[in-house]
Amino acid sequence: MDIQRIIANDPDALLVINARDLHAFSLGLLAQAKSATMTQHDVDPLLTSCEVKKLLGISDSTLYRRRQAGILVPVKGFGNNKYRLSDVNKLIHK
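RESULT FIELD:
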C-alpha cells in the first residue's frame, strides 16, 4: 500500500493500515526529512568554531560571548558547535 499516494489523491480517505505498511510509510517520511536537511546544509554550509574565529578574527572568549548573547547561534545535533556560513557572513558585512 502506497500511503503517500493515497494521501495525495484523497486526503480525507479513511484507511486501515497494517504495521508493515505503517513502518514503510514512516521510513519514507524519515528519508524525506533527512534529504531535506542535507539539502539545506548543502545550500548553507556549516563552519566549525575555528573557522568562524578565523573568518571574524576573534578569540575563543569573544566567540563564547557572542554565542551567549545570541549573536551567533550554533546548529544543534552535530556534537561540536557548528555555525551557518550565512550567519557569519551577516556579521562580516554588518
